[in-house]
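testing teh design pipeline on a random one, pls ignore if ur not involved
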């Protein structure tokens, strides 16, 4: 699993819910027409019950209804904005906005009931004057039809203006087609209607997804595209978790790893420990974009180290008293004079010792004897109680922090002669 692929999965995990939220609430959810089939029952199921015999005797156009049934359909504004007639995605020339089809059933009667606002009735009915009287008739957008060839009953509902949360119900009385002698259950009603408006920037997108009236059985939750978006999000999270837990070979670096390049200088005595520490840091912080360049001649001595550090600070124009974050110099003691920019930070205690070849035959030299040796006044070990062998001094090079510490702490500030 490459890091780039995992990054894309993380991006999709963020982009998908954001897109789903915008789609659900800014595009689709803003204008959503919901419907709910609250009842679809056969009258015959209750006709033989006490006080219900009239249900089986229902008549229409002079004949008794065959297998009468009732459907209570609820139409509601399930979105967050007002639905107006122009919002219905139907032919502007058609007066209706919703079409409900009942397969294998004829429509005997349709009744509007329980509108949340009395003004909603004006979209269904109008008063017409006939002679000296006034009669209430259905508007063209509210009607019923029966298609005998396809054995379907159809009701059409008008383009009703529905404020947010508004709703109305339609009670439909139906019967089985007279030529149908079957006893199979009736198919569910098919509700067709869409809301999206005309002339808005996202209308082509709405039509592309063929948004329909949303079925809201018990509560409004999410549209079909939103469901798909949520499943994509769940799949992305599962895939990323599997890669992280099981398939990814590398691991994220610790939080205390700092990316960048660190330049090291200074004492050769510190070189082994510093190289080991640098290698350990690079190993633990793999993937954190860390670089610590260490060449063979990186550690040239304390004096050269502090000089290089001072020069780096000056080149970077770091004010005196402020540290340079990407350079460190190690020295075996105090820095030499002439480097006022440097900031000392103790990092370890260094233990110094004088080592004598066992052939010299001496142990536990006194301080005055050591100073005499380094001053050149003792040239044979027999002069300090040892064997008759000549003295050969092996010392650190000038500029070494170890040599500087020896001069200050042991030799009372006097430089030793050259090695011999």
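output:
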């Amino acid at each position: 699993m490459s890091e780039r692929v995992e990054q894309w999965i993380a991006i999709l995990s963020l982009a998908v819910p954001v897109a789903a939220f915008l789609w659900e609430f800014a595009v689709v959810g803003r204008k959503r027409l919901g419907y709910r089939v609250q009842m679809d029952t056969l009258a015959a199921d209750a006709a033989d019950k006490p006080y219900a015999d009239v249900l089986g005797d229902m008549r229409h156009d002079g004949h008794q209804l065959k297998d009468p049934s009732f459907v209570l359909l609820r139409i509601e504004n399930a979105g967050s904005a007002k639905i107006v007639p122009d919002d219905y995605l139907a032919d502007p020339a058609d007066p209706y906005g919703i079409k409900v089809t009942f397969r294998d059933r004829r429509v005997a009667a349709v009744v509007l009931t329980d509108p949340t606002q009395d003004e909603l009735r004006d979209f269904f009915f109008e008063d017409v004057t006939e002679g000296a009287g006034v009669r209430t008739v259905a508007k063209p957008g509210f009607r019923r039809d029966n298609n005998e060839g396809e054995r379907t009953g159809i009701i059409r509902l008008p383009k009703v203006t529905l404020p947010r949360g508004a709703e109305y119900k339609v009670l439909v009385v139906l019967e089985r087609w007279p030529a149908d002698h079957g006893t199979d259950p009736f198919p569910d009603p098919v509700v067709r209607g869409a809301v999206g408006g005309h002339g808005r920037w996202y209308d082509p997108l709405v039509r592309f997804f063929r948004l329909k009236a949303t079925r809201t059985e018990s509560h409004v939750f999410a549209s079909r595209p939103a469901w798909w978006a949520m499943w994509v999000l769940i799949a992305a999270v599962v895939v990323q978790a599997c890669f992280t837990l099981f398939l990814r070979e590398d691991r994220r670096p610790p939080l205390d790893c700092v990316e960048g390049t660190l330049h090291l200088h200074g004492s050769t005595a510190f070189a082994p420990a510093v190289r080991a520490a640098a290698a350990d840091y690079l190993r633990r912080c793999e993937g954190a974009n860390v670089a610590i360049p260490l060449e063979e001649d990186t550690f040239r001595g304390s004096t050269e180290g502090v000089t290089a550090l001072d020069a780096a600070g000056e080149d970077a124009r770091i004010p005196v008293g402020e540290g340079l974050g990407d350079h460190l110099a190690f020295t075996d003691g105090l820095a030499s004079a002439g480097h006022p920019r440097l900031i000392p930070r103790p990092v370890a205690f260094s233990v110094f010792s004088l080592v004598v070849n066992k052939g010299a035959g001496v142990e536990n030299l006194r301080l005055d004897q050591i100073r005499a040796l380094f001053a050149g006044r003792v040239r044979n070990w027999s002069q300090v109680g040892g064997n008759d062998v000549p003295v050969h001094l092996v010392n650190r090079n000038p500029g070494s922090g170890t040599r500087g510490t020896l001069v200050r702490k042991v030799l009372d500030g006097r430089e030793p002669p050259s090695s011999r």
